[in-house]
Write a structure and sequence with these properties.
Length: 521
């Protein structure tokens, strides 16, 4: 740093310098004086330079100070790179399974992803509008401790052991201390288990009053079920297994079954298989008679278990990496190519018929000999949120198939208007409790607004190709048009037959007239 003074200040500066030299002459000079101490130099003016009215003073120490902000910036960048290296080495996303719904999906309908009654897990923990349920969570925990004669320390210690593993299941940094996180896991997990066990075996058996506002079968239970199946409102399944194991002594395989009993009202079908059909299906596919929702893989959370139960004996997930490598390699899913099939009205014009297929696997659609057989689908006020959260999980989790997404997009292609919904409803394929057919059409048209989907990565792609080939065949279109115009009712049939008879008689009359003219008797 260079400071410039005029001659009026020079005398004061020289006096100060003289006093400083006088003071320092009485002090010993230390050889290890810090190098950062500032030194003041008086450069000699060159002889050829004309003396002017100023004097320059150079302060060397300030040069280092001026470079410090840039050094701090570089250090900050290196620290961030080191943190990134640690995250990559720890593979922190390897166990990630409970995701925050991406923003591009939320834009369509944010409300369907946010709980309205109860929060589970850290994403919506502590929100003011959900705090009313906290008192019932504490009641559930108190009832468990009272019923089992356990001390709370048993549950807290068990969750302490699982804390690191549980945190790894959630996306991003969880802003809760260790004690807060463990308390949340115990409280939320025990609340869920009381609901599961109460629906499966009765709340009275667990010690709750018949008119309990939460722990009873009443209208509020549907809202709670809908919240508990949301992607951002999940608890890792191994946490529930440990808590239930403490209560019962063992819980292997039990938690998935009682969870499915609890979420059964959300199932989008009510068409059970007959025993003979079930045995025939299992023998043909080679599956065991008892359904295990977890199979040979550990369940992730309740939404994952529910999804697996929907897809039981269904198309097996195909590794996404294999598809990218061998089928349309290095290609990103094109959002413009999501049209699997034409709508109901157009398919009917091509002569394709629709019939209800008797099976509880709502996704199992078949096509043969111009007949599209679709299982019965139930639509209620929770269907939209259910399908949106299932599709969000399939969009986020790499290790699962996109079968639910494929089915919803297929149905979205079929339904373009209220007339399409009405036709499917009249054939028993679709049942809904919404206000009108137009609401159902609007629901399906909005479900897939922001979903990125590759039609080649769909279990319905081959079926769609068969339908489209049939649709593009001209003879099928002409035959369907003829049937629609002339055989749609008894009166049109009678008119058509009469017209044919009249045409034949006219031809015969003309023939005999010409014949008699050229070959008279």
């Amino acid at each position: 740093m260079v400071a410039v003074f005029n001659k009026e200040l020079l005398s004061w500066y020289l006096i100060t310098l003289k006093l400083k030299e006088t003071v320092e002459s009485g002090l010993p000079i230390l050889p290890d004086a810090p190098s950062s101490a500032r030194s003041i130099e008086f450069p000699e003016a060159p002889q050829h330079q004309q003396p002017d009215n100023s004097l320059q003073i150079v302060v060397n120490g300030d040069e280092e100070k001026s470079a410090s902000p840039e050094s701090e910036w570089i250090i900050s960048i290196k620290e961030k790179l080191e943190q990134a290296n640690q995250d990559a080495a720890a593979d922190s996303w390897a166990k990630l399974c409970i995701y925050r719904v991406p923003r591009y999906l939320r834009e369509a309908d944010d409300k369907s992803y946010i709980p309205q009654s109860v929060s589970l897990g850290p994403y919506h923990h502590g929100k003011r509008r959900l705090k009313n349920m906290d008192q019932h969570k504490w009641r559930a925990l108190h009832q468990i401790l009272k019923r089992t004669n356990h001390e709370i320390e048993i549950y807290l210690d068990a969750m302490k052991e699982l804390e690191e593993k549980a945190r790894a299941c959630y996306e991003g940094t969880i802003g809760l201390s260790s004690n807060e996180f463990v308390e949340m896991m115990v409280l939320d997990g025990c609340f869920m288990l009381e609901l599961f066990r109460g629906v499966a075996g009765g709340f009275k058996h667990l010690g709750y009053a018949r008119n309990d506002p939460i722990f009873a079968i009443r209208g509020s239970m549907h809202s709670i079920q809908r919240d508990m199946i949301m992607l951002e409102n999940q608890i890792p399944l191994f946490v529930l297994e440990r808590l239930l194991g403490i209560q019962l002594g063992q819980s292997e395989g039990l938690i998935a079954n009682i969870a499915l009993r609890f979420f059964d009202p959300l199932m989008p079908t009510d068409e059970p298989l007959t025993q003979s059909d079930r045995n025939k299906l299992e023998s043909s596919l080679g599956y065991i008679a008892t359904f295990d929702p977890l199979g040979d893989q550990g369940g992730l959370h309740c939404l994952d278990v529910f999804r697996r139960s929907l897809l039981r004996t269904g198309p097996q997930p195909v590794p996404r990496a294999w598809i990218r490598k061998w089928s349309h390699s290095n290609r990103v899913a094109d959002k413009r190519r999501q049209q699997l099939i034409h709508c109901v009205t157009q398919l009917r014009e091509a002569g394709i018929k629709f019939k209800k297929r008797k099976t509880d696997r709502f996704w199992d659609i078949k096509f043969k000999n111009g007949i599209l057989r679709i299982p019965r689908l139930l639509i209620h006020d929770g269907t939209k949120s259910l399908f949106l959260n299932l599709m969000a999980f399939e969009q986020c989790h790499l290790d699962c198939s996109n079968n639910i997404t494929s089915y919803v997009i297929f149905m979205d292609n079929l339904i373009n208007s209220p007339e399409d919904v009405g036709y499917l409803h009249s054939h028993g394929i679709m049942e809904h409790w919404l206000g009108s057919d137009s609401e159902v059409a609007d629901l399906f048209n909005r479900l897939c607004e922001e979903v990125v989907f590759d039609i080649n990565d769909s279990y319905l792609s081959s079926l769609s190709e068969k339908v489209n080939r049939y649709y593009n065949h001209r003879w099928n279109t002409w035959g369907a048009s003829l049937k629609h115009n002339y055989f749609s009712s008894p009166w049109t049939i009678i008119s058509f037959v009469a017209a044919v008879i009249l045409l034949v008689l006219t031809f015969v009359q003309t023939f005999y007239g010409v014949y008699g003219y050229y070959w008279p008797r």
